[in-house]
Amino acid sequence: MLTTGTAAAETRLPPITVTAPAQAGRVLPPQTVVTQDELVDRQPRSLADVLRGVAGVTVRANSRGETVARIRGAEERQTQVFLDGAPLAVPWDGRVDLGLLPAGLIGDVRITKGAAPIEFGTNTVAGVVDFQTRQSAQGSFAHAEAGSLGSGSASVVLAERIGAIEATLAAGGITRDADPLAGPLPFSQASRSRRTNSDLDAASFFAGLGTEQGDLRLRASLLHLTAKRGIAPESDRPAEAGTRFWRYPDIALTQATLNLGLTLSDHAELRATGWHQDFSQRIAQYRSVSYAALRRTQDDDDSTTGGRITLAHRLGPLDLRWAASAQSSTHRQVETDFPSAIAGPRLRYRQNLYSAGVEADAQLAQGIRATLGAAYDAVDNPLTGDKPRQPSLGA
Predict the structure, then answer these.
(1) Residue 245: closest CA among 280, 281, 283
(2) 351: closest CA among 132, 26, 94?
(3) Digitized pLDDT (tens) for each residue of the chain, 395 residues in all
(4) Any idea what the Cα angle at residue 91 is, between residues 88 and 97, rounded to 5°?
(5) Which domain does 83 fall in, by range?
(6) How distant is the alpha carbon of residue 253 from its chain centre?
(7) What is the C-alpha to C-alpha distance for residues 395 and 393, in angstroms, rounded to an integer?
(8) How many structural domains does the chain have?
(9) Which residues, listed in sequence order, are joined to residue 262 by a DSSP beta bridge?
(10) Cβ partners under 8 Å of residue 351, min gap 6
């Protein structure tokens, strides 16, 4: 294993992501912060490893091989994952595979357990995992390691301040030939030491530029990820019981994020973030554990655009935070059966999410404060593929 870093710069641009800062007097749900020093001590390989060992957080692989996080045992779709203020999950299934992204990119992470503050928007009933990328004050970083069964990871992060520009460039990769196996399994598992069809290759690139001009702060970033991997078959049942023999030969995610912060006065601040995500994957379904004959392929293509704006200000004895967000996501899907290799229809699905609300902090008595809030969420599904139309919902 090799790890290097540079000394931190004396100045650092303040973060401008539209999340929930721990302001004095604000009543927040329980939070855990994993600092840069803790990350250096633990040397995690992936974002999933960053969360392992955090109290109240469970990290596991689901039936599709995705490594997902659950807070306090809640369903993973109700745990929203952010990177620099923008949600990472693909809206089609509400999940993001945390095992594909290297941990070297991250400067720190804040985990909110329970119903999250209003700035985080929808799908945060269980909590929020808020990853922040490395800044120049945290220095540049390089890390490489290798292990048995072809496992290895590497990250290189250059985080520097050049005049008025805060720049971050990062590249990383994760690989393995197979997951280790502690003992024999009864079905679809020939080796006693290597889990069948559990290989992984992933590579990522990140670039971010930020600046501060008077009361205005701006930051733009781009993340690109490519991966391919196998999904270990269920080995507690015979193939005749419907075991899935799947591989993901092509996964790609690209996300662009723009953050803005504007100080309006000593007690008022405007923050905004916008994001666009493109995601694609191919699911290859095979007929047997030999992974030689295809049964079906499914090609998915998703595009998502969203934005969020918050205004924090003081009004008499109250500290108010107004928040509004909107997101539109389109999913396209084509299935092809084999051996005929005839593609089915191209199905299109679309979901629009809207959220607006306000929170207020108030001093009730000496040493007693309260945070009260109200919000309205709405969803619209204008395209439903081959499924029946659904009514719009709001609450």
Answers:
(1) 283
(2) 94
(3) 444 444 444 444 445 444 544 455 567 778 889 988 888 888 888 999 999 989 899 998 888 888 999 998 888 888 899 999 999 999 998 889 999 998 888 989 999 988 788 888 888 888 899 999 988 888 898 989 999 999 999 999 999 999 999 999 999 999 999 999 988 889 999 898 999 999 999 999 999 999 999 999 999 999 999 999 999 999 988 988 889 999 999 999 999 999 999 999 999 999 999 999 999 999 999 999 999 999 999 999 999 999 999 999 999 999 999 999 999 999 999 999 999 999 999 999 999 999 999 999 988 888 888 888 899 999 999 999 999 998 999 98
(4) 45
(5) 2-394
(6) 11
(7) 7
(8) 1
(9) 216, 270
(10) 91, 328, 329, 379, 380, 381
Tokens of 376: 């309205």
Q: Would you say how long the chain is, in residues?
A: 395
- From 354, 360, 243, 229, select the one nearest 295 (Cα to Cα): 243
> Long-range contact list for 51-60, CB < 8 A, 24+ apart?
51/98, 51/109, 51/111, 51/129, 54/111, 56/30, 56/32, 56/111, 56/113, 57/32, 57/111, 57/113, 57/129, 59/98
Give the per-residue SS3 of the chain: CEEEECCCCCCCCCCCCCCCCCCCCCCCCCEEEECHHHHHHHCCCEHHHHHCCCCCEEEEECCCCCEEEEECCCCHHHEEEEECCEECCECCCCECCCCCCEHHHEEEEEEEECCCCHHHCCCCCCEEEEEEECCHHHCCEEEEEECCCCCEEEEEEEEEEECCEEEEEEEEEEEECCCECCCCCCCCCCCCCECCCCCEEEEEEEEEEEEEECCEEEEEEEEEEEEEEECCCCCCCCHHHCCCCEEEEEEEEEEEEEEEEEEEECCEEEEEEEEEEEEEEEEEEECCCCCCCEEEEEEEEEEEEEEEEEEEEEECCEEEEEEEEEEEEEEEEEEEECCCCEECCCEEEEEEEEEEEEEEEEEEECCEEEEEEEEEEEEEEEEECCCCCCCCEEC
* Closest alpha carbon to 95 in 81, 116, 114, 109: 81
Residue located via tokens 């404060």: 369
